[in-house]
Amino acid sequence: MTLAFDPHGLVPPLGHHIGGRYEPAPDRIPLTAPSSGASLGAIPLADGDTVDRAVIAARAALESSGWGRAAPRDRLRALRKWADLIEQEAPTLARLEAACSSRPVGEVLAGDIPVTADQIRFFAEFADKECDVLAPTDDDHLGMIASEPYGVVGAITPWNYPISMAGWKFGPALAAGNAVVLKPSEMTPWSALFMAELSVRAGLPEGLVNVVLGDGPTTGAAITGHPGIDKVSFTGSTRAGAAIMENIARTGIKPMTLELGGKSPMIVFADADLDLAARCLERGILPNAGQFCVAGSRMIVAREIADELAARLIARFLSHAPAPTWAETPGFSPIISETQLSRIDSIVSASRAAGGEILCGGARFDCAGSFYRPTLIAGATPDNPAVTDEIFGPVATFQTFDTEDEALALAAHPTYGLCSGIFTRDLGRALRLSRRIEAGTVWINRYGRSRDHILPTGGWKASGLGKDLGREAFSANRRTKAVLAAL
Description:
By secondary structure, this protein is an alpha/beta fold. It has helices at residues 48-65, 72-88, 90-100, 105-124, 162-175, 190-201, 216-224, 238-251, 274-283, 303-318, 338-353, 385-388, 404-411, 427-436, 470-475; strands at residues 16-18, 21-23, 29-32, 39-43, 133-135, 141-149, 152-156, 179-183, 209-211, 231-235, 256-259, 265-268, 298-302, 357-360, 375-378, 395-401, 416-417, 419-423, 441-444, 460-461, 464-465, 478-486. The chain folds into 2 domains: 7-260 and 464-486, Aldehyde Dehydrogenase, Chain A, domain 1, CATH 3.40.605; 265-452, Aldehyde Dehydrogenase, Chain A, domain 2 (3-Layer(aba) Sandwich).
């Protein structure tokens, strides 16, 4: 099977997906292919009335199907069928994803889709394995801590890994007995719509999975502020997360899970395996052109190995060449939009003006589409824009240290605390530092998530609230109730 395709020959899903079927709507928001800059048409903008219909459909599906009250094994079986169908329809999903996103079609087919199906199966298994807890009381009483689904979960996903992020939201919410109203990014809408269609084909109750298209200020605000949304789950920028918190506080109190921005450090000690460190540092910043929240954008390296490691990284950075996301052979990913590319370039320019030395990159590729060269910046002080700002592109800073305490001081960030990496052969040092670094995740002698979905992900400080993945994500989609019975 050839993976290459013409993005203009695709027949994408049209409209919103509400109540188990597509709902046509006027096109309002232009859609562009970042690999070429060409137009892919437009998508609708869901207003408050559209979101209201989706919430009503979700509530009706819960009530008519009894999804939240059904035998847990029934939920498990239905979600497994959905995961199977997602894998069966992988070529279609991969093309819908690659056309308008930064994800190469081959990587989506081989990685994103299998991971998403695995995530849904993983959470499905919690349906009949998490149970209520008996509480210790005196002999005259029976105490119990019971859990129940919230009802309707409102979810908002970003553009950088659309299918995977949809799986993060759908999996735990549905396994826990909820319905979902999801808004994908307006820049990458098609794969989530098709996933909603597949949920109905897999036998999930119609209306349990709803996808509405639109932007953040209109559609996202309508979801997070809707009185019929019982819980909000969001992955995106810290600024957007703050706006969601404000909107929820203004329109009504409800729980939320926020997985937000990061500016994650990767610390390399002199005793580290340099081949391993070079590979991991490259993988920590260049996949998807650096457009992922856990990107290791701050490399903090022991001075005695700095020159050698920098040379290895420069060679690796220079080896990447761009290719359209619909090409047969994957290449370096495009930046999602010209606006984002301009922002990346402006931060690099500001970093250079503030004393940063561009070791490689620092400009766009000379080709069609929004492609930016892998960039490594040395000599940046802690207040340099490339060190302080989340760039969300293929740009990393390279700083040096002499002592362990100096490394920790450079790793600390006043705003973010999402992830971190430590490279050393001294396991005692690694575990000791893992307790001192302010981050929700610490990777040792590796960098990046694995397919161990049991490990939760989520940040400290302005990098977020709550956790995605793991048992914590399932629990976050259920609310507890204390029950005390006199015997």
